[in-house]
Structure formats: C-alpha cells, structure tokens
Design brief:
Shape: rod-shaped
Number of domains: 3
Number of strands: 6
Low-confidence stretches: 1-32
Radius of gyration: 45 Å
Number of helices: 7
Order of helices and strands: HHHEEEEEHHHHE
Strand content: 25-35%
Mean pLDDT: 79
CATH superfamily of the largest domain: Band 7 domain
Strand order of the largest sheet: 2-1-3
Largest sheet: 3 strands, antiparallel
CATH architecture of the largest domain: 2-Layer Sandwich
CATH topology of the largest domain: Tetrahydropterin Synthase, Chain A
Structural class: alpha+beta
CATH class of the largest domain: Alpha Beta
Helix content: 40-55%
C-alpha cells in the first residue's frame, strides 16, 4: 500500500511538473496580447498632430513667401510703375484707379491689380525733309532733332500714362512727331530764309517753347530742339 501510494504521488508530481511549464508561457502570451496604456497612445497621437501642424504651417509660410516674391515688382530710377485695378483716394481728395510708384518696388495684388512700366528716359525724335514756306513764300526744306521725355511730377506722369501707357517708344514718337512738325512749320512760316540761316538757335527756341506748351498736357517736356539743314527747294 505504501508503494502504491508512492506511485500515485510520484505520478501526480510528474503531471504537475509537466503542466507547470505551460503556465509561464500562457502568462507571456497574455502579456504580449495586452494593449499599450492609453496615455502612451494619446502621447503618440498628440505628437503626430504636432508634426502635421508644423508641416502645414511651414507649407503655408512657403506659399505666402512665394506669392510675395512673385508679385513684388521693381522698377529702376529712370522708370515709374503704374499700378491699376483699385480705386484710391489721392492726397488732394480726388479718386484715381491707379497708383504711381517711382523707383524701388511694390507688391501687386494678384488678380486685383495690374502693373505697367513707364520710362522716364529721354528719347530722340527726328524730322527729316520737312516741307514749309517762309514768310516770303519761299519753299524750303528743313531737318530737326528733338529730345523729349516724360516729366517727373505726378500730374505729368498721370497724363503720360493716359496717353502712352502700353505703347513702345516707336508709338510715342509717331504720336509726338506731328506736333513738332506743326510748330516747326509755324516758325518757318513767320521767318525768312536768311533769319533761319543766321539765327537757327532763336528759331529752334521758339519751336521748343511752343511744342512744350502743347505737349505739356500729355505729360511731356521738350528738353532740346535743333533745326538743321534749312534749304530752299
């Protein structure tokens, strides 16, 4: 009986020993199946949101910087920028649909404003073989060269923008040349051929004064005027 009991106890102990290694494995599997704590998950999600917010702000800053750079228009000291598209009040209380920027640069609002450059450089206009009659009725021909530019005050720039904005230098010359021809004919018609030969500077000054008064309404100034090669026909 003692042996039988020993056999039973030994068999029970062997079964217990065989079963005992299974428990730690099950506990390990249970630990691996347990999810992470909620505060860890929340920390990870908050970190992801912070990264997304930083990336979005960075993209927004880059886009705004690109828009600012691409719509910032610069002009040289011999140019003026006419920015149109918005109704603005001038210092004298009047309203205008454009603003004037002299030198430097300005930001032009996309889809709202449009910028155009107006040159303030001096340009030459030549008149060749102009036919006229002197005070004595003598038919003569004359050549002349004029130096013309847009005046720098705001009123003259506004007038020049109205007449010449969007036109190239050739178009401007074609518009101004008839005025010079008109005043040159008028001066030659009030002078004799000898007077023009002896005092060409005086005749040129008279043409310049008359042309400047006429072209001033277009924002232009005649810097110089020279009469050349007056000859009888």
């Amino acid at each position: 009986m003692i042996r039988i009991r020993g056999a039973r106890s030994s068999s029970f102990s062997i079964a217990a020993l065989c079963a005992s290694p299974i428990l730690p494995g099950r506990n390990a599997e249970a630990r691996t199946e347990n999810p992470q704590p909620r505060w860890v998950e929340r920390s990870i999600m908050n970190y992801q949101y912070v990264i997304l917010a930083v990336v979005a702000v960075g993209l927004l800053v880059c886009i705004n910087f690109f828009i600012l750079i691409s719509n910032f228009v610069r002009v040289g000291p011999n140019q003026v920028l006419i920015v149109s598209g918005r109704r603005l009040q001038l210092p004298d209380g009047t309203f205008a649909g454009f603003r004037i920027v002299k030198g430097g640069g300005t930001f032009v609002w996309p889809l709202i404003e449009k910028a155009a450059v107006l040159s303030l450089e001096v340009f030459s206009i030549e008149v060749q073989r102009l036919k006229a009659r002197t005070a004595n009725g003598e038919p003569v021909e004359a050549d002349c060269v004029a130096q013309v530019k847009i005046k720098g005050d705001d009123a003259s720039i506004a007038a020049a923008a109205e007449h010449f904005l969007g036109k190239n230098e050739g178009d401007m010359k074609n518009l101004v040349r008839p005025f010079l021809e008109k005043h040159l004919r008028a001066v030659l018609g009030n002078s004799t051929l000898d007077e023009v030969d002896q005092t060409p500077g005086t005749c040129a000054d008279r043409v310049q004064a008359a042309a400047s008064a006429d072209l001033g309404g277009m924002g232009l100034s005649v810097i110089s005027f020279t009469i050349q090669n007056v000859r009888a026909r």
